[in-house]
Amino acid sequence: MTDKKIAVVILNWNGVALLEQFLPSVLAHSDEAKVYVADNASSDTSIDVIKEKFPSITIIQNDANYGFAKGYNVALQQVEEEYYALVNSDIEVTKDWLKPILSLFDAEPKTGIIQPKILDYKNKQYFEYAGAAGGFIDQFGYPYCRGRIFESIEKDNGQYDDEKIIFWASGACFFIRKDIYRKLHGFDDDFFAHQEEIDLCWRAFNLGYTAKYTSKSVVYHVGGATLNEGNPKKTFLNFRNSLLMLTKNVPDAKLFPILLARLILDGLAGVQFIFKGKLRHFWAIIRAHFAFYALINKTLKKRRAPHLEKYYHSKSIVYKHFLKSGIVFET
């Protein structure tokens, strides 16, 4: 335990090349934090490299590859700093990136979760897919961001240089108060990876806490370094976990109609994959639904009151983006 208020915790699994590339920026610009690497039982040389090249970093060794959700849950049991910064191993941070975060947490007790501006490491003038300038969902649970809707990515022209309450913060660079994380029992282990951060933000929102985006803190994200967009496993996890998240958090009166609508919309997404010749992704959606059915009873038991009625920023981002006008974002 140190006298520092914030812990930067980087989850790693066989990512030695990413650690060597990106840990130097974290160490150079994180004087306000204690830096940890939580290792998910890597079989590469990650641990040896950290010990040799980055001896100031505290290593937490998980005994298995628990994925993103449980991996962090297990590791953070050993981290006692007041604020957690959960940072992907493919993130480059910038000078003074932590100062605006600390200022917001200290000044706003109801702000429980914060996300910085996330730009594309490979094209730094553009927002990055995973988080951009803060996340929202539509009433059917489809996530999108200021600066990114589906595959449409905006150039950063300063249009989101602000501080704004958002619905979800990206797990690529995710700040949360330790007491809220533990009060909510962290991420849902059943998600393994993908959308667990949206579920956690939703549960925090139901308890009256807010998530906030600040452009005063900037990071650059490679994206897809662990599981790229073309991988059917990512399709499986996104579709399954979205249904799990809805089942846990949608208000009682809306739950069945929303799930029914999602099943139809997911079916249409599957047909689109067929027409594009992406049969493995079509099959991933089928598998996601059967996996969801297998978990539905367990998931229903996780529902906790209250479930706030207005959780969505748009009724249907699919309709607005693809069918109506191709809009990018409505404020």
Question: What do you see in this structure?
Answer:
This protein is α/β, with parallel strands linked by helices and 331 residues long. The protein has two domains: 6-221, Alpha-Beta Complex (Spore Coat Polysaccharide Biosynthesis Protein SpsA, Chain A); 232-324, no CATH class. Helix content is 39%, strand content 22%. The strands form three sheets. Strands 1, 2, 3, 4, 5, 6, 7, 12, 13 and 14 form a ten-stranded mixed β-sheet that branches. Strand 2, helix 2 (46-53) and strand 3 form a beta-alpha-beta unit. Helix 7 (232-249) runs antiparallel to helix 8 and helix 8 runs antiparallel to helix 9. It is globular, with a radius of gyration of 19 Å. The model has no long low-confidence stretch (mean pLDDT 93).
Q: Which key phrases capture this entry?
A:
Spore Coat Polysaccharide Biosynthesis Protein SpsA, Chain A, 331 residues, 10 helices, globular, 2 domains, alpha/beta
* Overall structural domain count: 2
Overall pLDDT, averaged?
Answer: 93
**What helical percentage do the residues reach?**
25-40%
Supply the CATH class of the largest domain. Alpha Beta
Given as residue ranges, the uncertain stretches (5+ residues, pLDDT < 50) are: none
- Structural classification: alpha/beta
Shape descriptor = globular
Tell me about the biggest sheet? 10 strands, mixed
Counted beta strands? 14
Distance, first to last CA: 42 Å
CATH superfamily of the largest domain: Spore Coat Polysaccharide Biosynthesis Protein SpsA, Chain A
The third-level CATH topology of the largest domain is Spore Coat Polysaccharide Biosynthesis Protein SpsA, Chain A
Number of helices: 10
Strand percentage lies at 15-25%
* Rg computed from alpha carbons, rounded to a whole number of angstroms: 19 Å
- Please trace the helix and strand order, writing H or E for each element: EHEHEHEEHEEEEEEEEHHEHHHH
CATH architecture identity of the largest domain: Alpha-Beta Complex
